[in-house]
């Protein structure tokens, strides 16, 4: 297992032709671009946590039935500083780095002051985001890095904080019908307030400002005040429907005072994150037209979630699906000390993730009796009116043991049937991928012995009329490093294999990514 996780992976910046087995569809033309940690040891220093590793981008380019692989480390400021010093000198969430020990005590006091709201890393290792015609590697800090999707070259660094007051932001933005980016970030103790901001990055700029970047036109759409000034909620994603933004304020929170003193106490920022199992999880619904929050307060029991699956509106209700846990054990699983050889036997989650469907009645009878269930759709999910006017929601469990959900993005924010997911059970490492029908609860699976598939990405067939008309792509790493990894292409309807592209390299396990169709790519000369 440590070969999959702990070992540094080599980069392959020049294209390597994959051996294609089976038959790939002729219409599949473009680039699957993915991101994840690839280097965990620098000189004599090691990161503590798998999510801290230096970002390694990799891509599969589909061209006329042939497939080419390449990989390249993101040349972030973090990467360059660490490699130049031959040790970890930039802190990540789970690993606090310290300046050279021979620096004098004044320097230490000075750098302590600058760590209060820290200068975060630009090691953007989680996902890829499209802004206009450009692509960016993203993490969860205020920094993103522009990249060339064809060569994987690292380009300029963008600081969200220059345009909107956010210290952290999600790596799971949404895109509206015009291609504008909608994302959320937290503004920590700015002018005495901590709030969650929904911001928009336009897909294009006015004709007379063509030289200006889209970021100069970034705007805050609205803000939701944090329930606590010094304990903002951690969140990895948010939901969207045709008329609403869904923001979940979970009792999994950062302690800002602890973060401010973490450096001097010699602990990581991750140690400043705590789950309060007896607290409530609050749901916020923001009207996309009025930019105001719905006044009614909706909540559920304490939970920890990372990924929204999808959300939609039906008969005055908002229906949203999330993958949720009853505790925060997931993050701890990925400390590298836990990812040794006997990892599979030794490390077990204390709860299995569940796909929970919440059905929230935005339009309900205001004269309804206290303790009555306000959900009028056929569902086992409930929303009960309480004495104080708050509404207590309990979900329908759609299924258990799935993570890293993807959908046909044309159905984002709309009523949908299918989610493409990894299967995890008691170990957080996927051993299979599946197609899950949220309406019938049926599941189709793909798995082979000693295979570790990544997040499945759905690619629609051009001019597809049906939700599952297309293919599903997943990168598969083998347990034995001598066994070459491959990119698997499944027919999304039947979930059967169409073909695979085998690459003779040691591939890393990644996190998230996107498929860029050929027509969405700038030509090299542009």
UniProtKB/TrEMBL annotation:
Source taxon at top rank: Eukaryota
Designated name of the protein: BCDO1 dioxygenase
Gene Ontology molecular-function annotations: beta-carotene 15,15'-dioxygenase activity; carotenoid dioxygenase activity; metal ion binding
Entry keyword set: Dioxygenase, Iron, Metal-binding, Oxidoreductase
Bound cofactor: record note: Binds 1 Fe(2+) ion per subunit.
Cofactor entry: Fe(2+)
Pfam families cross-referenced by the UniProt entry: RPE65
Coiled-coil segments on the chain, per record: none
GO BP annotations, alphabetical order: carotene catabolic process; retinal metabolic process
Entry similarity comment: Belongs to the carotenoid oxygenase family.
Binding site for Fe cation: 172, 236, 307, 512
């Amino acid at each position: 297992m440590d070969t999959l996780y702990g070992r540094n992976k080599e980069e392959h910046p020049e294209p390597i032709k994959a051996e294609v087995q089976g038959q790939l569809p002729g219409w599949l033309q473009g680039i699957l671009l993915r991101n994840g940690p690839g280097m965990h040891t620098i000189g004599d220093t090691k990161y503590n946590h798998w999510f801290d590793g230096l970002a390694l981008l990799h891509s599969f380019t589909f061209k006329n039935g042939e497939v080419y692989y390449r990989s390249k480390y993101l040349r972030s400021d973090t990467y360059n500083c660490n490699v130049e010093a031959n040790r970890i000198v930039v802190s990540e969430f789970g690993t606090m780095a310290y300046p050279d020990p021979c620096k004098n005590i004044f320097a230490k006091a000075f750098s302590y002051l600058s760590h209060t709201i820290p200068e975060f890393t630009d090691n953007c290792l989680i996902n890829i985001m499209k802004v206009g015609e450009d692509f960016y590697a993203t993490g969860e800090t205020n920094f993103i890095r522009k990249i060339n999707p064809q060569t994987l070259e690292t380009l300029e660094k963008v600081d969200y904080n220059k345009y909107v007051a956010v210290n952290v932001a999600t790596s799971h933005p949404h895109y509206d019908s015009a291609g504008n980016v909608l994302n959320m970030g937290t503004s920590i103790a700015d002018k005495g307030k901590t709030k969650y901001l929904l911001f928009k990055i336009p897909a294009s700029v006015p004709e007379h400002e063509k030289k200006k970047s889209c970021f100069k036109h970034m705007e805050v759409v609205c803000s939701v005040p944090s329930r606590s000034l010094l304990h903002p909620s951690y969140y990895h994603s948010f939901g969207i429907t045709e008329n609403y933004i869904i923001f979940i304020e979970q009792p999994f929170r950062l302690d800002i005072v602890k973060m401010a003193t973490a450096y001097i106490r010699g602990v990581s920022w991750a140690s400043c994150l705590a789950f309060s199992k007896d607290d409530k999880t609050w749901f916020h619904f923001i009207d996309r037209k009025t930019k105001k929050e719905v006044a009614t307060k909706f909540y559920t029991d304490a939970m920890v979630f990372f990924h929204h699956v999808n959300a939609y509106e039906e008969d005055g209700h908002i229906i949203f699906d999330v993958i949720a846990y009853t505790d925060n054990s997931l993050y701890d699983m990925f400390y590298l000390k836990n990812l040794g050889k006997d990892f599979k036997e030794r490390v077990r989650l204390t709860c299995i993730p569940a796909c929970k469907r919440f059905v929230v009645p935005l339009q309900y009878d205001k004269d309804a009796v206290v303790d009555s269930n306000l959900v009028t759709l056929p569902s086992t999910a409930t929303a009960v009116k309480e004495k104080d006017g708050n509404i207590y929601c309990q979900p329908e469990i759609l299924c258990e043991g799935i993570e890293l959900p993807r959908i046909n993005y044309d159905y984002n924010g709309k009523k949908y049937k299918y989610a493409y997911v990894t299967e995890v059970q008691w170990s957080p490492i996927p051993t299979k991928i599946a197609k899950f029908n949220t309406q019938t609860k049926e599941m189709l699976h793909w798995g082979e012995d000693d295979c570790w598939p990544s997040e499945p990405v759905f690619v629609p067939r051009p001019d597809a009329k049906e939700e599952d008309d297309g293919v599903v792509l997943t990168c598969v790493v083998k347990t034995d490093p001598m066994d070459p990894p491959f990119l698997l292409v499944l027919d999304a309807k039947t979930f059967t294999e169409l073909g695979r592209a085998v690459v003779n390299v040691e591939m890393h396990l990644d996190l998230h990514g996107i498929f860029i169709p050929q027509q969405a790519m700038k030509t090299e000369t542009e």
